[in-house]
């Protein structure tokens, strides 16, 4: 998103990102950079594009919802980087880019002439970010396998269960975006380019935070606590008269407020429960007392009562219900084939960038191929020959209604 294309410039306006990543971690990172104003050029295979374009249903306007989730604000260039002419164009793009992001299997980028050292020779100031499943290993990394290998499944559910979203990809994408921003800041202060390496397994282990540290300190394997917290009590789901909800009394003051609100001051003065350490030791006894109380009234009454007392509480909602309840969780873009399209916002705002600004929709495959090639000095008959040879692809835009 740049001032030149009529969109509100962000703090990364003027920064070009050559995005060779696909699926989720890399595209999530580059969507964040696009939200901040970078010109993200998404390089895709002209035959099928990003894998997630086929990961449906559901679809909107012929595009899979999975793809639509993390690709707004970008330009799509359909380019066969395995063809010598396509490889030359990709190298030219990298030479002109501020940031290159890729998640090729080990050795592939180098064989294509797009490896870090090769790009840096032509572009010494480039920030080059590689995303892998397992650093230094020639094995694919998909979220489900990373969740298995990282301990997430071990600590989730009564039997090993996967977190319901590809959380390790999301964490890796966030780490990649943060690291790239740090490298760009260093470069802006007079530094050179930077090599950034992010892995799904490293991001997952880092994301275990207190669970990992507790295992290191205690020397004991972490255990699954289901919907409870291993070291804070009460901090879990409870059954009300008509459903389930969550209470998160994260300190002694909140526990006393909880006891006051539910009419059980005796629990706050009970010698088994005065501190969190005591409550952890006597978890089963306290939870049994609270379950008996919560079973007497419906969820809405408990969440209203506890909320008024300042005790963190929440109804267990479905995804669509949660989006609608949040109020301002989505934005709308005008998509070439889907028309008005609702997308979930990123989890941050900047005062200088209006939340209601015009945002480019997720692009069609090859929507901007000829536009980008012209910027790189490839146009006219040369571009036509490349398209005829299948090296590039330009999307046919639907007629305006």
TrEMBL record:
The keyword Transferase applies. It comes from the Bacteria. One of its GO terms (molecular function) is CoA-transferase activity. Pfam families: CoA_transf_3. InterPro entries: CoA-transferase_III_domain, CoA-Trfase_fam_III, CoA-Trfase_III_dom3_sf, CoA-Trfase_III_dom_1_sf. Keywords: Transferase. This is CoA transferase. It comes from Streptosporangium carneum.
């Amino acid at each position: 998103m740049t001032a030149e294309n009529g969109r509100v410039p962000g703090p990364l306006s003027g920064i070009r990102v050559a995005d060779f990543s696909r699926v989720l971690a890399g595209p999530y990172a580059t969507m964040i950079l696009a939200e901040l104003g970078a010109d993200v050029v998404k390089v895709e295979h002209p035959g099928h594009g990003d894998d997630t374009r086929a990961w449906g249903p559901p679809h909107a306007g012929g595009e899979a919802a999975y793809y639509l989730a993390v690709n707004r604000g970008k330009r799509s260039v359909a380019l066969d980087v395995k063809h010598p002419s396509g490889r030359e164009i990709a190298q030219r793009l990298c030479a002109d880019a501020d940031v290159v992001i890729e998640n090729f299997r080990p050795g592939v980028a180098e064989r294509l002439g797009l490896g870090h050292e090769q790009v840096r020779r032509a572009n010494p100031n480039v920030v080059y970010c590689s995303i892998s499943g397992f650093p230094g290993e020639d094995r694919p990394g998909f979220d489900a396998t990373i969740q298995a290998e990282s301990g997430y499944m071990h600590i989730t559910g009564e039997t090993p269960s996967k977190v319901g979203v590809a959380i390790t990809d999301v964490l890796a994408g966030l780490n990649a975006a943060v690291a790239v921003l740090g490298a760009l800041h260093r470069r802006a202060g007079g530094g050179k380019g930077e090599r950034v390496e992010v892995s799904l397994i490293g991001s997952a282990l880092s994301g275990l935070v207190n669970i990992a540290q507790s295992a290191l300190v205690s020397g004991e394997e972490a255990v699954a606590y289901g919907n409870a917290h291993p070291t804070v009590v009460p901090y879990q789901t409870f059954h009300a008269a008509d459903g389930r909800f969550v209470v998160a009394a994260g300190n002694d003051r909140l526990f006393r407020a909880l006891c006051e609100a539910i009419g059980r001051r005796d629990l706050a003065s009970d010698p088994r429960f005065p501190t969190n350490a005591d409550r952890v030791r006597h978890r089963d006894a306290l939870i049994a007392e609270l379950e008996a109380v919560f079973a007497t009234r419906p969820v809405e009454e408990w969440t209203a009562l506890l909320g008024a007392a300042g005790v963190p509480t929440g109804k267990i909602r479905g995804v669509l219900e949660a989006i609608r309840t949040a109020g301002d969780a989505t934005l709308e873009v005008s998509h070439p084939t889907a028309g008005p399209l609702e997308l979930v916002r990123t989890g941050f705002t900047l005062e200088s960038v209006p939340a209601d600004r015009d945002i480019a929709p997720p692009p069609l495959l090859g929507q901007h191929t000829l536009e980008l090639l012209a910027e790189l000095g490839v146009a006219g008959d040369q571009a036509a020959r490349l398209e005829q040879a299948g090296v590039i692809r330009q999307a046919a835009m639907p007629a305006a209604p």
